[in-house]
Write a structure and sequence with these properties.
9-stranded mixed β-sheet, 10 helices, alpha/beta, 304 residues, Rossmann fold
């Protein structure tokens, strides 16, 4: 007897049930992304220096470690650094702010459905963030192929952040045609490794990328119809490896913008956000906190 076929709607609904979505902890960004960052999609966060790329990624690491009752995924996270560990101090600052904010929130809720273990995990959010430091492409490949699968299997890792992917390829570039071909091959290999791991473990991958300035008008659509001042590094080869690109922009003031450049499920759109001492937040939420008597220290346009 022949098996009954499945419709495109059936396949789409089945896939959607397997997707894991991680809140950014910022309502304006979550609204832009229709809930947050998703598994099964390789997301790139690009932007000029001090646009807030690393700030967003550090917040995502802590968000993924929060218990589900507080909007997290209740797992661990992996932070792969390619440009030194200067951001670890900021991660500890955010971790302290998160412990205070969400530990207090759990105590106030006093919900019977919150297990004691969820509360006990609050002081040790940073204990759930694993850090790998790499400087070359071969080291990054080794992490993705050898060490990361074990981490995903043994520690229920929900998020992997690579900050930044451009750094390892910048060191490899010599400008020759042969070098460019090999670099493209490595890009596709890395992307394929991440796709396999994302499908097998339902893990979310987020990567930061740098930008370069002043490019031709014909290529401006790669980034945005609103600005032609910057384009993402690594060229078209890398652009074809990722599924989703978000561009962060800073201004002379404290407010930043995040723009959906391309995505398999999102239309082009923008959202506003602020970087405070306690993390990334939307301007509306910051305004509400001020009205309620909570003051947040804003971080200026030079934050990374």
């Amino acid at each position: 007897m022949a098996t009954q076929g499945r419709t495109a709607l059936d396949l789409w609904q089945a896939r959607e049930q397997e997707v894991v979505t991680l809140s950014s902890g910022c309502s304006s960004i979550d609204e832009l992304l229709q809930g947050g960052f998703r598994s099964g999609i390789l997301t790139e966060v690009c932007g000029e220096a001090s646009a807030g790329k690393t700030q967003l990624c550090l917040q995502l690491l802590l968000q993924s470690c929060l218990p589900p009752v507080l909007g997290g995924l209740g797992g661990s996270a992996c932070y792969i650094c390619t440009e030194g560990i200067g951001s670890i101090k900021r991660l500890h600052e955010l971790g302290h702010a998160y412990n205070q904010k969400y530990g207090s929130m759990l105590r106030k809720r006093r919900r019977t459905d919150v297990e004691q273990s969820s509360y006990n995990s609050m002081p040790s959010l940073l204990d759930s963030v694993f850090i790998e430091q790499v400087y070359e492409v071969d080291e990054l490949v080794d992490v993705l192929q050898s060490r990361l699968p074990t981490l995903l299997a043994d520690h229920d890792t929900k998020l992997v952040v690579i900050d930044s992917v451009a750094a390892v390829f910048r060191l490899e570039s010599t400008g020759s045609v042969k070098d460019a071909s090999e670099r493209s091959r490595l890009m596709f290999h890395l992307a394929n490794c991440m796709r396999i791991l994302s499908a097998q473990f339902r893990v979310i991958f987020v990567m930061t990328n740098q930008v370069t300035g002043n490019f031709t008008e014909g290529a401006a659509s790669i980034v945005s119809t609103h600005s032609n001042q910057h384009k993402p590094a690594l060229g078209l080869s890398w652009s074809s490896c990722i599924n989703q690109r978000l561009m962060l922009r800073r201004s002379r003031h404290t407010e930043r913008r995040v723009e959906v450049v391309f995505s398999p499920y999102l239309p082009p759109a923008t959202a506003r956000f602020l970087i405070t001492a306690d993390g990334i937040t939307s301007p509306d939420d910051a305004h509400d906190d001020t009205r309620n008597g909570t003051r947040r220290s804003l971080i200026g346009p030079n934050a990374t």
